[in-house]
Design goal:
594 residues, alpha+beta, 5-stranded mixed β-barrel, 16 helices
Length: 594
Protein backbone atom coordinates (compact mmCIF):
# COMPACT_ATOMS: atom_id res chain seq x y z
CA UNK A 1 0.00 0.00 0.00
CA UNK A 2 1.09 3.57 -0.71
CA UNK A 3 -0.65 6.89 -0.33
CA UNK A 4 -2.18 6.73 -3.82
CA UNK A 5 -3.94 3.36 -3.76
CA UNK A 6 -4.69 0.25 -1.80
CA UNK A 7 -5.95 -1.54 -4.94
CA UNK A 8 -5.98 -1.04 -8.69
CA UNK A 9 -9.14 -0.39 -10.71
CA UNK A 10 -9.63 -4.03 -11.77
CA UNK A 11 -9.00 -5.65 -8.40
CA UNK A 12 -12.01 -5.16 -6.14
CA UNK A 13 -14.83 -7.72 -5.90
CA UNK A 14 -17.69 -8.43 -3.50
CA UNK A 15 -15.13 -10.18 -1.29
CA UNK A 16 -13.95 -6.65 -0.44
CA UNK A 17 -17.42 -5.55 0.67
CA UNK A 18 -17.42 -2.86 3.40
CA UNK A 19 -13.65 -2.33 3.14
CA UNK A 20 -12.24 1.20 3.14
CA UNK A 21 -10.08 1.62 0.07
CA UNK A 22 -8.06 4.16 -1.92
CA UNK A 23 -8.08 4.22 -5.73
CA UNK A 24 -6.27 6.52 -8.17
CA UNK A 25 -6.81 6.89 -11.88
CA UNK A 26 -8.33 8.85 -14.75
CA UNK A 27 -11.97 9.89 -14.94
CA UNK A 28 -13.15 7.79 -17.87
CA UNK A 29 -16.85 8.78 -17.84
CA UNK A 30 -19.32 10.65 -15.64
CA UNK A 31 -23.09 10.17 -15.37
CA UNK A 32 -24.96 12.83 -13.41
CA UNK A 33 -28.33 11.58 -12.11
CA UNK A 34 -29.11 14.71 -10.16
CA UNK A 35 -28.77 13.44 -6.61
CA UNK A 36 -26.11 10.92 -7.55
CA UNK A 37 -22.95 11.30 -9.63
CA UNK A 38 -21.41 8.13 -11.10
CA UNK A 39 -17.75 8.18 -12.08
CA UNK A 40 -15.94 5.42 -13.97
CA UNK A 41 -12.37 5.50 -12.69
CA UNK A 42 -9.77 3.97 -15.02
CA UNK A 43 -6.17 2.90 -14.64
CA UNK A 44 -3.90 0.56 -16.60
CA UNK A 45 -5.72 -2.50 -15.21
CA UNK A 46 -9.38 -1.68 -15.70
CA UNK A 47 -12.43 0.28 -14.50
CA UNK A 48 -14.21 0.73 -11.20
CA UNK A 49 -17.54 2.50 -10.85
CA UNK A 50 -17.58 5.10 -8.09
CA UNK A 51 -20.60 7.02 -6.81
CA UNK A 52 -21.03 10.17 -4.69
CA UNK A 53 -24.20 11.51 -3.10
CA UNK A 54 -25.29 15.16 -3.46
CA UNK A 55 -25.06 15.56 0.30
CA UNK A 56 -21.28 14.95 0.16
CA UNK A 57 -19.30 18.20 0.29
CA UNK A 58 -17.10 17.02 -2.59
CA UNK A 59 -20.09 16.50 -4.93
CA UNK A 60 -19.98 19.92 -6.66
CA UNK A 61 -16.23 19.78 -7.16
CA UNK A 62 -16.43 16.35 -8.79
CA UNK A 63 -19.39 17.46 -10.87
CA UNK A 64 -17.29 20.25 -12.45
CA UNK A 65 -14.10 18.27 -13.01
CA UNK A 66 -12.99 17.58 -16.59
CA UNK A 67 -12.92 14.05 -18.02
CA UNK A 68 -9.40 12.50 -18.07
CA UNK A 69 -8.36 14.43 -14.99
CA UNK A 70 -6.39 12.26 -12.56
CA UNK A 71 -7.93 11.86 -9.12
CA UNK A 72 -7.45 9.91 -5.93
CA UNK A 73 -10.58 8.76 -4.11
CA UNK A 74 -11.18 7.32 -0.67
CA UNK A 75 -14.30 5.31 -0.18
CA UNK A 76 -16.09 2.13 0.85
CA UNK A 77 -16.74 -0.98 -1.25
CA UNK A 78 -20.47 -1.60 -1.71
CA UNK A 79 -22.05 -4.67 -3.33
CA UNK A 80 -24.29 -3.84 -6.28
CA UNK A 81 -27.88 -5.03 -6.48
CA UNK A 82 -28.48 -7.90 -8.92
CA UNK A 83 -30.14 -5.68 -11.52
CA UNK A 84 -27.19 -3.25 -11.59
CA UNK A 85 -24.37 -5.82 -11.93
CA UNK A 86 -22.15 -5.17 -14.97
CA UNK A 87 -20.89 -8.58 -16.14
CA UNK A 88 -18.55 -6.92 -18.68
CA UNK A 89 -16.35 -5.54 -15.88
CA UNK A 90 -14.08 -7.46 -13.53
CA UNK A 91 -15.33 -5.07 -10.85
CA UNK A 92 -18.93 -5.21 -12.06
CA UNK A 93 -20.35 -6.70 -8.83
CA UNK A 94 -19.30 -3.71 -6.69
CA UNK A 95 -19.07 0.06 -6.68
CA UNK A 96 -17.29 2.55 -4.44
CA UNK A 97 -19.13 5.01 -2.23
CA UNK A 98 -16.85 8.06 -2.39
CA UNK A 99 -15.99 9.60 0.98
CA UNK A 100 -13.40 12.09 -0.29
CA UNK A 101 -11.27 12.84 -3.32
CA UNK A 102 -8.08 14.66 -4.27
CA UNK A 103 -7.23 16.14 -7.68
CA UNK A 104 -3.81 14.81 -8.75
CA UNK A 105 -3.62 16.04 -12.34
CA UNK A 106 -5.85 18.46 -14.23
CA UNK A 107 -6.87 17.92 -17.86
CA UNK A 108 -7.38 20.57 -20.52
CA UNK A 109 -10.17 20.34 -23.08
CA UNK A 110 -9.66 17.08 -24.95
CA UNK A 111 -8.84 17.15 -28.69
CA UNK A 112 -10.34 13.66 -29.09
CA UNK A 113 -12.60 11.31 -27.09
CA UNK A 114 -10.88 8.74 -24.87
CA UNK A 115 -13.71 6.49 -23.71
CA UNK A 116 -14.67 5.63 -27.31
CA UNK A 117 -12.73 3.47 -29.80
CA UNK A 118 -14.39 5.12 -32.79
CA UNK A 119 -12.20 6.02 -35.77
CA UNK A 120 -10.64 9.44 -35.52
CA UNK A 121 -8.44 11.54 -37.80
CA UNK A 122 -4.95 10.03 -37.98
CA UNK A 123 -3.24 13.42 -37.68
CA UNK A 124 -4.97 14.10 -34.34
CA UNK A 125 -4.33 10.56 -33.10
CA UNK A 126 -0.61 10.76 -33.82
CA UNK A 127 -0.16 14.32 -32.55
CA UNK A 128 -1.82 13.36 -29.26
CA UNK A 129 -0.60 9.77 -29.22
CA UNK A 130 -0.29 9.80 -25.41
CA UNK A 131 -4.08 10.35 -25.32
CA UNK A 132 -4.76 7.85 -28.09
CA UNK A 133 -2.88 5.22 -26.08
CA UNK A 134 -5.33 5.65 -23.20
CA UNK A 135 -8.16 4.31 -25.38
CA UNK A 136 -9.16 0.79 -24.45
CA UNK A 137 -8.47 -1.02 -27.72
CA UNK A 138 -5.07 0.44 -28.50
CA UNK A 139 -4.05 0.32 -24.82
CA UNK A 140 -4.76 -3.40 -24.85
CA UNK A 141 -2.85 -3.81 -28.13
CA UNK A 142 0.28 -2.30 -26.57
CA UNK A 143 -0.06 -4.51 -23.49
CA UNK A 144 -0.45 -7.49 -25.83
CA UNK A 145 2.73 -6.45 -27.60
CA UNK A 146 4.63 -6.36 -24.31
CA UNK A 147 3.30 -9.77 -23.31
CA UNK A 148 4.16 -11.26 -26.72
CA UNK A 149 7.75 -10.01 -26.47
CA UNK A 150 8.09 -11.40 -22.93
CA UNK A 151 6.70 -14.76 -24.06
CA UNK A 152 9.09 -14.90 -27.03
CA UNK A 153 12.07 -14.01 -24.85
CA UNK A 154 11.22 -16.74 -22.31
CA UNK A 155 10.56 -19.31 -25.04
CA UNK A 156 13.86 -18.60 -26.77
CA UNK A 157 15.72 -19.03 -23.50
CA UNK A 158 13.90 -22.35 -22.94
CA UNK A 159 15.21 -23.41 -26.37
CA UNK A 160 18.80 -22.64 -25.23
CA UNK A 161 19.22 -19.42 -27.19
CA UNK A 162 21.42 -16.68 -25.73
CA UNK A 163 20.35 -13.05 -26.02
CA UNK A 164 22.93 -10.58 -27.34
CA UNK A 165 22.73 -6.97 -28.48
CA UNK A 166 24.38 -5.92 -31.74
CA UNK A 167 25.53 -2.39 -32.73
CA UNK A 168 23.14 0.33 -33.84
CA UNK A 169 25.83 2.52 -35.44
CA UNK A 170 27.38 0.49 -38.24
CA UNK A 171 28.28 0.62 -41.93
CA UNK A 172 26.00 0.65 -44.94
CA UNK A 173 24.86 -2.70 -46.34
CA UNK A 174 22.89 -3.65 -49.48
CA UNK A 175 19.80 -5.06 -47.72
CA UNK A 176 17.43 -3.79 -50.41
CA UNK A 177 16.18 -0.53 -48.85
CA UNK A 178 17.64 2.93 -48.22
CA UNK A 179 19.82 3.40 -45.17
CA UNK A 180 19.35 6.01 -42.49
CA UNK A 181 22.73 7.74 -42.31
CA UNK A 182 24.36 9.35 -39.28
CA UNK A 183 27.27 11.80 -39.82
CA UNK A 184 30.39 11.16 -37.77
CA UNK A 185 31.74 14.17 -35.84
CA UNK A 186 35.08 12.50 -35.14
CA UNK A 187 35.50 11.28 -38.72
CA UNK A 188 34.57 14.24 -40.94
CA UNK A 189 32.94 13.35 -44.24
CA UNK A 190 32.11 9.81 -43.12
CA UNK A 191 28.78 8.36 -42.08
CA UNK A 192 27.42 5.54 -40.00
CA UNK A 193 24.31 3.67 -41.14
CA UNK A 194 21.56 2.50 -38.82
CA UNK A 195 21.18 -1.27 -39.38
CA UNK A 196 18.46 -2.41 -41.75
CA UNK A 197 18.86 -5.70 -39.87
CA UNK A 198 21.63 -7.17 -37.68
CA UNK A 199 22.46 -9.52 -40.58
CA UNK A 200 26.24 -9.34 -40.64
CA UNK A 201 26.60 -9.10 -36.88
CA UNK A 202 24.49 -12.16 -36.14
CA UNK A 203 26.57 -14.16 -38.59
CA UNK A 204 29.71 -12.89 -36.86
CA UNK A 205 28.22 -14.12 -33.57
CA UNK A 206 28.17 -17.62 -35.07
CA UNK A 207 31.75 -17.26 -36.32
CA UNK A 208 32.64 -16.25 -32.76
CA UNK A 209 31.68 -19.71 -31.53
CA UNK A 210 28.25 -19.04 -30.00
CA UNK A 211 25.74 -21.68 -31.02
CA UNK A 212 22.29 -20.05 -30.74
CA UNK A 213 21.68 -16.30 -30.68
CA UNK A 214 18.59 -14.12 -30.52
CA UNK A 215 17.55 -10.56 -29.81
CA UNK A 216 14.43 -8.42 -30.14
CA UNK A 217 16.18 -6.18 -32.64
CA UNK A 218 15.32 -2.67 -33.83
CA UNK A 219 15.76 -2.30 -37.60
CA UNK A 220 15.87 0.93 -39.58
CA UNK A 221 14.87 1.36 -43.22
CA UNK A 222 14.21 4.59 -45.06
CA UNK A 223 11.22 3.30 -47.01
CA UNK A 224 7.63 4.34 -47.60
CA UNK A 225 4.87 3.37 -45.17
CA UNK A 226 2.35 0.63 -45.88
CA UNK A 227 -0.43 -0.89 -43.81
CA UNK A 228 1.92 -3.71 -42.72
CA UNK A 229 5.14 -1.67 -42.62
CA UNK A 230 6.15 1.25 -40.42
CA UNK A 231 8.27 3.99 -41.98
CA UNK A 232 11.63 4.34 -40.28
CA UNK A 233 11.88 1.58 -37.72
CA UNK A 234 10.44 -1.79 -36.80
CA UNK A 235 11.30 -4.68 -34.49
CA UNK A 236 12.03 -8.30 -35.26
CA UNK A 237 12.91 -11.48 -33.44
CA UNK A 238 16.38 -11.96 -34.85
CA UNK A 239 17.83 -15.45 -34.44
CA UNK A 240 20.75 -17.46 -35.80
CA UNK A 241 21.97 -21.04 -35.25
CA UNK A 242 25.20 -22.88 -36.03
CA UNK A 243 25.60 -26.37 -37.52
CA UNK A 244 22.04 -26.46 -38.83
CA UNK A 245 20.13 -27.20 -42.00
CA UNK A 246 16.95 -25.54 -43.24
CA UNK A 247 14.66 -27.99 -41.41
CA UNK A 248 16.34 -27.24 -38.08
CA UNK A 249 15.36 -23.59 -38.43
CA UNK A 250 11.82 -24.59 -39.40
CA UNK A 251 11.42 -26.85 -36.36
CA UNK A 252 12.41 -24.09 -33.93
CA UNK A 253 10.24 -21.42 -35.56
CA UNK A 254 7.18 -23.69 -35.89
CA UNK A 255 7.34 -24.60 -32.19
CA UNK A 256 7.62 -20.93 -31.28
CA UNK A 257 4.82 -19.74 -33.57
CA UNK A 258 2.37 -22.48 -32.59
CA UNK A 259 2.89 -21.92 -28.87
CA UNK A 260 2.79 -18.12 -29.30
CA UNK A 261 -0.40 -18.00 -31.36
CA UNK A 262 -2.13 -20.54 -29.11
CA UNK A 263 -1.20 -18.49 -26.06
CA UNK A 264 -2.52 -15.17 -27.32
CA UNK A 265 -5.40 -16.10 -29.62
CA UNK A 266 -8.40 -18.42 -29.61
CA UNK A 267 -8.29 -18.75 -33.40
CA UNK A 268 -7.59 -22.19 -34.85
CA UNK A 269 -4.20 -22.95 -36.39
CA UNK A 270 -5.02 -24.96 -39.51
CA UNK A 271 -1.72 -26.87 -39.83
CA UNK A 272 0.71 -26.98 -36.91
CA UNK A 273 3.27 -28.52 -39.27
CA UNK A 274 3.45 -25.66 -41.73
CA UNK A 275 3.19 -26.62 -45.44
CA UNK A 276 6.30 -26.10 -47.58
CA UNK A 277 5.55 -24.41 -50.91
CA UNK A 278 8.21 -23.66 -53.49
CA UNK A 279 8.45 -20.08 -54.72
CA UNK A 280 7.74 -21.26 -58.26
CA UNK A 281 4.60 -23.17 -57.23
CA UNK A 282 3.39 -20.31 -55.07
CA UNK A 283 3.66 -17.79 -57.90
CA UNK A 284 1.79 -20.16 -60.24
CA UNK A 285 -0.94 -21.31 -57.86
CA UNK A 286 -1.49 -18.08 -55.91
CA UNK A 287 0.16 -15.34 -58.01
CA UNK A 288 2.21 -14.25 -54.99
CA UNK A 289 4.85 -15.50 -52.57
CA UNK A 290 2.61 -14.32 -49.70
CA UNK A 291 -0.44 -16.57 -50.14
CA UNK A 292 -3.43 -16.55 -47.81
CA UNK A 293 -4.08 -20.27 -47.50
CA UNK A 294 -7.44 -19.69 -45.80
CA UNK A 295 -8.57 -18.82 -49.31
CA UNK A 296 -9.58 -22.06 -51.10
CA UNK A 297 -9.33 -20.54 -54.60
CA UNK A 298 -6.32 -21.43 -56.71
CA UNK A 299 -4.88 -20.21 -59.99
CA UNK A 300 -4.22 -22.34 -63.08
CA UNK A 301 -2.16 -21.66 -66.17
CA UNK A 302 -4.24 -21.75 -69.38
CA UNK A 303 -1.66 -20.32 -71.77
CA UNK A 304 -1.53 -23.42 -73.98
CA UNK A 305 -5.32 -23.38 -74.45
CA UNK A 306 -4.89 -20.24 -76.54
CA UNK A 307 -2.59 -21.98 -78.99
CA UNK A 308 -5.44 -24.30 -80.07
CA UNK A 309 -7.12 -23.78 -83.44
CA UNK A 310 -10.59 -24.43 -81.97
CA UNK A 311 -10.27 -21.45 -79.63
CA UNK A 312 -11.28 -18.24 -81.42
CA UNK A 313 -10.64 -15.68 -78.65
CA UNK A 314 -8.29 -13.70 -80.88
CA UNK A 315 -7.36 -10.94 -78.41
CA UNK A 316 -5.76 -13.43 -76.03
CA UNK A 317 -4.37 -15.58 -78.86
CA UNK A 318 -2.40 -12.63 -80.28
CA UNK A 319 -1.01 -11.73 -76.87
CA UNK A 320 0.00 -15.34 -76.18
CA UNK A 321 1.77 -15.54 -79.55
CA UNK A 322 3.90 -12.58 -78.37
CA UNK A 323 4.85 -14.24 -75.08
CA UNK A 324 1.98 -13.31 -72.75
CA UNK A 325 0.61 -15.78 -70.19
CA UNK A 326 -2.98 -16.64 -69.27
CA UNK A 327 -3.93 -17.39 -65.67
CA UNK A 328 -7.38 -18.43 -64.46
CA UNK A 329 -9.33 -18.62 -61.20
CA UNK A 330 -12.07 -21.21 -60.71
CA UNK A 331 -15.12 -20.52 -58.52
CA UNK A 332 -17.26 -23.49 -57.47
CA UNK A 333 -21.04 -23.64 -57.99
CA UNK A 334 -21.49 -20.03 -59.06
CA UNK A 335 -23.82 -20.66 -62.02
CA UNK A 336 -26.71 -18.98 -60.20
CA UNK A 337 -24.78 -15.83 -59.41
CA UNK A 338 -26.27 -12.76 -61.15
CA UNK A 339 -24.53 -11.20 -64.12
CA UNK A 340 -23.69 -8.20 -61.91
CA UNK A 341 -21.41 -10.36 -59.73
CA UNK A 342 -19.19 -11.22 -62.70
CA UNK A 343 -19.33 -7.75 -64.24
CA UNK A 344 -18.34 -6.15 -60.93
CA UNK A 345 -15.21 -8.34 -60.75
CA UNK A 346 -14.32 -7.33 -64.31
CA UNK A 347 -14.90 -3.65 -63.47
CA UNK A 348 -12.80 -3.95 -60.31
CA UNK A 349 -9.90 -5.46 -62.31
CA UNK A 350 -9.92 -2.48 -64.68
CA UNK A 351 -9.84 -0.12 -61.69
CA UNK A 352 -6.73 -1.99 -60.52
CA UNK A 353 -5.01 -1.13 -63.78
CA UNK A 354 -5.58 -4.42 -65.63
CA UNK A 355 -7.40 -4.76 -68.94
CA UNK A 356 -10.15 -6.65 -67.10
CA UNK A 357 -11.06 -10.25 -66.38
CA UNK A 358 -12.81 -12.44 -68.95
CA UNK A 359 -15.23 -15.00 -67.54
CA UNK A 360 -17.75 -17.71 -68.31
CA UNK A 361 -19.71 -20.46 -66.54
CA UNK A 362 -19.61 -24.14 -67.55
CA UNK A 363 -23.01 -25.49 -68.59
CA UNK A 364 -24.26 -28.75 -70.07
CA UNK A 365 -27.35 -29.59 -72.05
CA UNK A 366 -26.44 -32.04 -74.76
CA UNK A 367 -22.85 -30.91 -74.66
CA UNK A 368 -20.48 -28.76 -72.60
CA UNK A 369 -20.93 -25.03 -73.32
CA UNK A 370 -19.75 -21.79 -71.76
CA UNK A 371 -22.22 -19.11 -70.68
CA UNK A 372 -20.79 -15.60 -70.64
CA UNK A 373 -19.56 -12.80 -72.90
CA UNK A 374 -16.60 -14.80 -74.26
CA UNK A 375 -18.02 -18.31 -73.98
CA UNK A 376 -18.86 -18.50 -77.67
CA UNK A 377 -15.15 -18.44 -78.59
CA UNK A 378 -14.47 -21.88 -77.05
CA UNK A 379 -15.21 -25.27 -78.56
CA UNK A 380 -16.54 -28.14 -76.45
CA UNK A 381 -13.18 -29.90 -76.64
CA UNK A 382 -11.30 -26.83 -75.47
CA UNK A 383 -13.78 -26.40 -72.60
CA UNK A 384 -13.24 -30.01 -71.56
CA UNK A 385 -9.49 -29.39 -71.57
CA UNK A 386 -9.97 -26.29 -69.38
CA UNK A 387 -12.15 -28.33 -67.00
CA UNK A 388 -9.44 -30.95 -66.78
CA UNK A 389 -6.68 -28.40 -66.06
CA UNK A 390 -8.71 -26.47 -63.45
CA UNK A 391 -10.67 -29.42 -61.97
CA UNK A 392 -13.88 -27.60 -62.91
CA UNK A 393 -17.34 -29.09 -63.02
CA UNK A 394 -20.58 -28.07 -64.69
CA UNK A 395 -22.01 -25.13 -62.74
CA UNK A 396 -18.57 -23.71 -61.90
CA UNK A 397 -17.29 -20.42 -63.29
CA UNK A 398 -13.89 -19.27 -64.43
CA UNK A 399 -12.21 -15.86 -64.52
CA UNK A 400 -9.06 -15.39 -66.56
CA UNK A 401 -6.51 -12.71 -67.41
CA UNK A 402 -3.79 -12.37 -70.01
CA UNK A 403 -0.61 -10.32 -69.95
CA UNK A 404 3.11 -10.24 -69.22
CA UNK A 405 4.05 -12.70 -66.50
CA UNK A 406 4.53 -10.14 -63.71
CA UNK A 407 1.32 -8.30 -64.67
CA UNK A 408 -0.83 -11.42 -64.87
CA UNK A 409 0.57 -12.76 -61.59
CA UNK A 410 -0.27 -9.49 -59.85
CA UNK A 411 -3.86 -9.20 -61.06
CA UNK A 412 -4.63 -12.89 -60.58
CA UNK A 413 -3.33 -12.73 -57.00
CA UNK A 414 -5.42 -9.65 -56.22
CA UNK A 415 -8.46 -11.16 -57.98
CA UNK A 416 -8.11 -14.39 -56.01
CA UNK A 417 -8.41 -12.41 -52.77
CA UNK A 418 -11.16 -10.12 -54.09
CA UNK A 419 -13.34 -12.99 -55.34
CA UNK A 420 -12.88 -14.99 -52.12
CA UNK A 421 -13.97 -12.00 -50.03
CA UNK A 422 -16.98 -11.33 -52.25
CA UNK A 423 -18.01 -14.99 -51.94
CA UNK A 424 -17.31 -14.96 -48.17
CA UNK A 425 -14.90 -17.91 -48.46
CA UNK A 426 -12.29 -16.81 -45.91
CA UNK A 427 -12.64 -17.98 -42.31
CA UNK A 428 -11.52 -15.06 -40.16
CA UNK A 429 -11.20 -17.33 -37.12
CA UNK A 430 -8.23 -19.26 -38.48
CA UNK A 431 -4.48 -18.84 -38.84
CA UNK A 432 -2.89 -20.57 -41.81
CA UNK A 433 0.91 -20.64 -41.86
CA UNK A 434 3.20 -21.84 -44.62
CA UNK A 435 6.85 -21.78 -45.62
CA UNK A 436 7.78 -20.42 -49.04
CA UNK A 437 11.04 -22.12 -50.04
CA UNK A 438 13.44 -22.56 -52.98
CA UNK A 439 13.75 -18.90 -53.89
CA UNK A 440 15.86 -18.09 -56.94
CA UNK A 441 19.29 -16.76 -55.96
CA UNK A 442 19.15 -14.07 -58.65
CA UNK A 443 16.61 -12.15 -60.69
CA UNK A 444 16.65 -9.61 -63.51
CA UNK A 445 16.08 -5.99 -62.62
CA UNK A 446 12.99 -4.96 -64.63
CA UNK A 447 14.40 -1.48 -65.27
CA UNK A 448 18.12 -2.08 -65.90
CA UNK A 449 17.81 -5.70 -67.08
CA UNK A 450 20.88 -6.51 -64.96
CA UNK A 451 21.25 -9.55 -62.73
CA UNK A 452 20.76 -8.83 -59.02
CA UNK A 453 20.25 -10.77 -55.81
CA UNK A 454 16.58 -11.64 -55.43
CA UNK A 455 16.39 -12.14 -51.68
CA UNK A 456 19.53 -12.13 -49.53
CA UNK A 457 23.10 -11.80 -50.82
CA UNK A 458 24.54 -13.89 -47.97
CA UNK A 459 22.53 -17.06 -48.72
CA UNK A 460 23.87 -20.51 -49.55
CA UNK A 461 23.02 -21.74 -53.04
CA UNK A 462 21.43 -25.17 -53.38
CA UNK A 463 23.06 -28.18 -54.99
CA UNK A 464 26.68 -29.23 -55.34
CA UNK A 465 28.57 -26.04 -54.54
CA UNK A 466 31.58 -27.29 -56.53
CA UNK A 467 29.52 -27.55 -59.71
CA UNK A 468 27.20 -24.55 -59.70
CA UNK A 469 26.15 -23.39 -63.16
CA UNK A 470 27.24 -19.76 -62.99
CA UNK A 471 26.60 -19.39 -66.74
CA UNK A 472 22.85 -19.67 -66.05
CA UNK A 473 22.50 -17.73 -62.77
CA UNK A 474 18.71 -17.37 -63.00
CA UNK A 475 18.47 -21.17 -62.58
CA UNK A 476 20.36 -21.14 -59.26
CA UNK A 477 18.09 -21.68 -56.26
CA UNK A 478 19.05 -20.74 -52.73
CA UNK A 479 18.33 -22.00 -49.24
CA UNK A 480 16.11 -18.99 -48.64
CA UNK A 481 12.69 -19.11 -47.05
CA UNK A 482 9.82 -16.91 -45.91
CA UNK A 483 7.20 -17.66 -43.30
CA UNK A 484 3.72 -16.43 -44.24
CA UNK A 485 0.49 -16.32 -42.21
CA UNK A 486 -2.90 -15.33 -43.65
CA UNK A 487 -1.23 -13.57 -46.57
CA UNK A 488 1.16 -11.60 -44.35
CA UNK A 489 4.90 -12.16 -44.68
CA UNK A 490 6.18 -12.52 -41.13
CA UNK A 491 9.79 -13.23 -41.86
CA UNK A 492 12.60 -13.94 -44.29
CA UNK A 493 15.54 -16.19 -43.56
CA UNK A 494 18.25 -18.32 -45.08
CA UNK A 495 21.01 -20.82 -44.60
CA UNK A 496 24.10 -18.62 -44.92
CA UNK A 497 26.99 -18.83 -47.30
CA UNK A 498 29.99 -19.35 -44.99
CA UNK A 499 32.55 -19.98 -47.77
CA UNK A 500 34.42 -16.81 -48.87
CA UNK A 501 35.47 -18.13 -52.30
CA UNK A 502 31.86 -19.00 -53.13
CA UNK A 503 30.67 -15.62 -51.90
CA UNK A 504 33.07 -13.83 -54.26
CA UNK A 505 31.71 -15.83 -57.20
CA UNK A 506 28.07 -15.13 -56.33
CA UNK A 507 28.69 -11.43 -55.83
CA UNK A 508 30.52 -11.28 -59.17
CA UNK A 509 27.33 -12.49 -60.88
CA UNK A 510 25.53 -9.47 -59.39
CA UNK A 511 28.23 -7.11 -60.68
CA UNK A 512 30.49 -6.80 -57.61
CA UNK A 513 34.23 -7.29 -58.06
CA UNK A 514 36.45 -8.75 -55.32
CA UNK A 515 37.72 -5.35 -54.22
CA UNK A 516 34.18 -4.01 -53.82
CA UNK A 517 33.10 -7.04 -51.77
CA UNK A 518 36.15 -6.65 -49.54
CA UNK A 519 35.34 -2.97 -49.00
CA UNK A 520 31.62 -3.33 -48.37
CA UNK A 521 31.75 -6.51 -46.28
CA UNK A 522 35.24 -6.29 -44.83
CA UNK A 523 34.25 -7.49 -41.37
CA UNK A 524 32.25 -10.46 -42.56
CA UNK A 525 34.43 -11.69 -45.42
CA UNK A 526 37.49 -11.47 -43.19
CA UNK A 527 35.79 -13.36 -40.35
CA UNK A 528 34.56 -16.14 -42.65
CA UNK A 529 38.14 -16.84 -43.67
CA UNK A 530 39.05 -17.80 -40.08
CA UNK A 531 36.96 -20.96 -39.78
CA UNK A 532 33.21 -20.34 -40.02
CA UNK A 533 30.59 -22.96 -39.12
CA UNK A 534 27.62 -23.73 -41.38
CA UNK A 535 24.83 -21.55 -39.99
CA UNK A 536 21.43 -20.08 -40.73
CA UNK A 537 18.67 -18.00 -39.27
CA UNK A 538 15.50 -16.01 -39.66
CA UNK A 539 13.88 -12.85 -38.26
CA UNK A 540 10.07 -12.85 -37.71
CA UNK A 541 8.60 -9.35 -37.47
CA UNK A 542 7.28 -8.49 -34.02
CA UNK A 543 4.99 -5.75 -35.33
CA UNK A 544 3.29 -8.03 -37.87
CA UNK A 545 2.91 -10.88 -35.38
CA UNK A 546 1.14 -8.57 -32.92
CA UNK A 547 -0.95 -7.10 -35.75
CA UNK A 548 -2.27 -10.59 -36.57
CA UNK A 549 -2.89 -11.50 -32.94
CA UNK A 550 -4.70 -8.21 -32.29
CA UNK A 551 -6.74 -8.65 -35.47
CA UNK A 552 -5.64 -5.25 -36.76
CA UNK A 553 -5.24 -4.23 -40.40
CA UNK A 554 -2.72 -1.45 -39.82
CA UNK A 555 0.62 -1.77 -38.06
CA UNK A 556 0.25 1.65 -36.42
CA UNK A 557 -2.46 0.16 -34.20
CA UNK A 558 0.13 -2.05 -32.47
CA UNK A 559 3.05 0.41 -32.39
CA UNK A 560 3.39 2.66 -29.38
CA UNK A 561 4.69 5.83 -31.06
CA UNK A 562 4.45 5.42 -34.84
CA UNK A 563 5.21 7.96 -37.52
CA UNK A 564 2.73 9.09 -40.14
CA UNK A 565 2.79 8.18 -43.83
CA UNK A 566 5.44 10.86 -44.47
CA UNK A 567 7.77 9.44 -41.80
CA UNK A 568 7.02 12.33 -39.42
CA UNK A 569 6.56 12.14 -35.66
CA UNK A 570 3.82 14.73 -35.17
CA UNK A 571 4.01 14.47 -31.40
CA UNK A 572 7.76 15.14 -31.04
CA UNK A 573 8.05 17.22 -34.23
CA UNK A 574 10.61 14.95 -35.87
CA UNK A 575 12.45 15.20 -38.16
CA UNK A 576 13.40 18.74 -37.24
CA UNK A 577 15.94 21.33 -38.31
CA UNK A 578 19.25 21.57 -36.49
CA UNK A 579 21.32 24.58 -35.54
CA UNK A 580 24.27 26.02 -37.44
CA UNK A 581 26.53 25.03 -34.53
CA UNK A 582 25.46 21.42 -34.81
CA UNK A 583 26.11 21.45 -38.55
CA UNK A 584 29.58 22.91 -37.98
CA UNK A 585 30.40 20.23 -35.38
CA UNK A 586 29.53 17.60 -37.99
CA UNK A 587 31.40 19.36 -40.79
CA UNK A 588 28.17 19.64 -42.77
CA UNK A 589 26.46 22.41 -44.67
CA UNK A 590 22.97 22.48 -46.16
CA UNK A 591 22.41 23.19 -49.81
CA UNK A 592 19.19 25.13 -50.23
CA UNK A 593 16.80 24.11 -53.00
CA UNK A 594 16.35 26.67 -55.73
Amino acid sequence: MNKYRTHNCAELTKKNKDQSIILSGWINKKRDHGNLLFIDLRDNYGLTQCVIDKSNKFFKDLEKIQLESVIKIKGTVVERSKETINSDLKTGEIEINIVSFELLGTCKELPMPIFSDQDYAEEIRLKYRFLDLRRKKIHENIILRSNVISFIRNKMQELDFLEFQTPILTSSSPEGARDFLVPSRLNPGKFYALPQAPQQFKQLVMVSGFDKYFQIAPCFRDEDARADRSPGEFYQLDLEMSFVEQEDIFNVVEKLMVSLFKKFSSKKIINENFPRISYEDSMLKYGTDKPDLRNPLSISDLTNIFTREDVKFDIFKKLVSKGSKVRSILTKKTKDKPRSFFDNIDKWAKEEGASGLAYFTFEKDKQITAKGPVGKFFSEESLKEIMKITSAEVGDSIFFACGKINEVEKISSLARDKIAKDLNLINENEFSFCWIIDYPMFEKDQITNKIKFSHNPFSMPQGDIKNIDFKNPLNIKAYQYDIVCNGVELSSGAIRNHIPELMYKLFSVAGYDKKEVDEKFKGMINALSYGAPPHGGIAPGIDRIVMLLANEKNIREVTMFPMNQNAQDLMMNAPSEISENQLKELNLSLKKKK
